[in-house]
UniProtKB/TrEMBL annotation:
Annotated Pfam families: RNHCP (PF12647)
Name of the protein in question: RNHCP domain-containing protein
Lineage: Bacteria, Bacillati, Actinomycetota, Actinomycetes, Kitasatosporales
Domain RNHCP, chain residue ranges per copy: 19-107
Length: 127
């Protein structure tokens, strides 16, 4: 009897492990799905991800490097995606922004090119 109870507990533990992951950057325990059940692959707090999917070949990647959020891309549909770069192998990936992602970091990445233009802004003053 007690043996059965023990087995059931370890099953529940395994299920819990599959649906959460620890953020490779800030250590936050992240649920692998959002509150409305949408799967996610990056930390909603710091937006870092981990290189566990091989986006070129498909399937799991052996890399497991940390992926830093480097930019925002806006699709034709208006949806935002976070561009990640793997710190270990430099692979670039993009993943959809989720509703509970850190909006301050998202906005900071979105305006960064405007804050640091590769040409002098004074040019606009004389137009
Ligand atoms: Zn994090
Ligand atoms: Zn990698």
């Amino acid at each position: 009897m007690s043996h059965h109870t023990g087995a059931r507990q370890s099953d529940a533990h395994n299920t819990l492990k599959l649906t959460t992951f620890a953020c490779a950057w800030c250590g936050l325990t992240v649920s692998a799905t959002t509150a409305d059940g949408v799967p996610r692959d990056h930390c909603p707090s710091c937006l870092h991800s981990q290189h566990v999917t091989d986006h070129v070949e498909g399937g799991p990647s052996p890399c497991h490097g940390r992926m830093s959020p480097i930019a925002i891309a806006v699709l034709r549909t208006g949806d935002w995606r976070v561009i990640h770069r793997c710190v270990r192998c430099d692979e670039l990936t993009s993943s959809p922004v989720r509703t509970d992602d850190n909006q301050l970091i998202l906005m900071r990445m979105a305006v960064r090119p405007l804050a640091q233009p590769p040409f002098p802004l004074e040019a606009f003053g004389s137009l």
